[in-house]
Design brief:
9 strands; 3-stranded parallel beta sheet; alpha/beta; 43% helix; 12% strand; 288 residues
Length: 288
């Protein structure tokens, strides 16, 4: 998997691919992070040479969404395929029923500005002004101590500190239980390397309606108006409106969550992913 649009992982890739590509008959690049094509214009002449040397002319470029930046075409992949991500069904056999009046909102991801943390806090403040005492739980690692202060200060300034909970990093069963307890999943990202939003699939498998952004490959995962809602990036007002609608209409929220669960089972299980990846590798190198 190649790097996103950042120099440090780019140099990692140059080192690894530079030392190994010559040993193999076939090269497949799996673009899990996206936007490396956006990095190229920012590179100097020497870095651009290294970029072409490491990445150009792979046999196959695998993208995980047709809506993400077309990095495979940029590096002149001989063939391009779309293989959506898949995850194990951690919700299988669990009770996924929701409350009549949903009010528990969940965010999972890196806690940084480009993941939409401040936008989500502002949207919660707007909900509180309209009389909704919803709770927003953030799960994830802070990007920095400075941003942690910025986020907590914003919540305090807007008078909603009691409604915001920063729960830290959760993994495994603890993380699954957080999805299970929630009513709505909120993910207003505009992260540079966002390609697919795998955490959205995690939320959908737990039958959560999703409110996210019209950003990169996310519209290929979230069906706007069916499995959740999509809003423009950095639009706290519209984000608050969509969250308010779901909170005020529990039956609609549950229906969207159930639709998301069905879409997960139809498209994003680990079995779907494995079969699709097997087909790509067999088409390149034959059965093993």
């Amino acid at each position: 998997p190649p790097a996103g649009p950042d120099r440090v992982p780019f140099y990692r890739d140059v080192a690894i691919l530079g030392m190994t590509r010559w040993m193999f008959r076939k090269v497949i690049l799996h673009f899990h992070a996206t936007g490396m094509s956006l990095l190229y214009p920012r590179l100097n002449i020497i870095e651009r040479f290294l970029f072409r040397w490491a990445y150009f002319d792979p046999d196959v470029g695998i993208r995980i969404s047709p809506l993400s930046p077309d990095d495979a075409r940029f590096v002149r992949a001989r063939r391009e395929v779309i293989v959506p991500n898949g995850i194990p069904d951690a919700a299988n056999g669990l009770d996924l029923s929701r409350r009549e009046n949903p009010g528990r909102i969940l965010f999972v991801g890196m806690l940084c500005e480009s993941k939409g943390v401040l936008v989500a806090i502002e949207a919660m403040a707007l909900l509180a002004e309209r009389g909704y005492a919803c709770e927003l739980t953030f799960i994830g690692e802070w990007q920095s101590a400075d941003f942690r202060r910025q986020a907590t200060d914003l919540a305090a300034k807007r008078g909603i500190g009691r409604l915001i909970r920063f729960a830290g990093v959760k993994q495994g069963r603890e993380k699954d239980e957080s999805f299970l307890r929630a009513d709505i999943f909120c993910f207003p990202t505009h992260f540079d390397s966002e390609s697919f939003g795998l955490v959205l699939v995690e939320a959908m498998q737990f039958a959560l309606p999703v409110v996210s952004t019209n950003w990169r490959g996310i519209p290929s995962v979230v069906d706007d108006g069916k499995t959740g809602f999509l809003v423009p990036v950095k639009d706290a007002g519209l984000l608050a409106e969509r969250l308010e609608y779901l909170v005020a209409n529990g039956a609609v929220a549950r229906g969207m969550g159930e639709a998301g669960r069905r879409k997960y089972l139809q498209e994003y299980t680990l079995d779907h992913f494995h079969r699709a990846m097997d087909a790509v590798f067999e088409s390149v190198g034959g059965k093993t």
